[in-house]
């Protein structure tokens, strides 16, 4: 547990060897929690003596972390929170950042707000089902005009929820919402465990978190920020049937990160870490191994300008 500068407490899970050559920090999506990464945490532990240190935390207003007020429900604040988590739990050594959905946007905000720190500490990236262009490409799998109407309704509803406080009446409605969530968040296949974890996390998110972060998420523009750090090993994944962050989002990120490997997972939706855990885990392990090899060769954290050339 860490208490942030504004008094909010974050629930943090730390695993793996203390003297690991690489630390992996996992950041989950909007209305989810650190359990989104459960399969990837297991895969990283399975690396044996080469396993990294792994830090997974519940974002403010999510999971077991403390609630936040409207002023704190922004991506800018989440970027600052990530900086505090890294300073506290990974003060030295190369870091690999992995973000799903809002978690990927959190990474971009950390890079934007703390560029020198990001450049000196971060040596690899995994960006899953996320965007650097707000809701520019979001169509919910619908025709453009209908998508505009849905976005307007969503935005108005989010404003109301943001002012509704830290209570959770929607827990009782989750069974009725299940078909809509299944359609919106998943692709062709959806395992029962993945669906239950997704719904339980949503049930723990208070109304002011569900609504409060929406405006910041919709308005973020960080492609230029990513381009400044395009020389590090990176992987970008997206589901071929993602209705929230479609393939165009991942393609623009990959263009900004010339060293990134872009993977479009056929038939998959938005919840890739749970829906297609093997593909996500494989991509993360590849980035971690590359960073570990580079760190071993250099005998120090990776320096600017060399990461991309030595990634293969």
TrEMBL record:
Keyword check for Ribosomal protein: no
MF (Gene Ontology): hydrolase activity
Domain AB hydrolase-1 as annotated: residue spans: 24-283
SUPFAM superfamilies: alpha/beta-Hydrolases
Record carries keyword Hydrolase: yes
Entry-linked Gene3D superfamilies: alpha/beta hydrolase (3.40.50.1820)
Pfam families tied to this protein: Abhydrolase_6
Highest taxon in the source lineage: Bacteria
Entry keyword set: Hydrolase
PANTHER family: AB HYDROLASE SUPERFAMILY PROTEIN YCLE, MONOACYLGLYCEROL LIPASE
Protein name as catalogued: Alpha/beta hydrolase
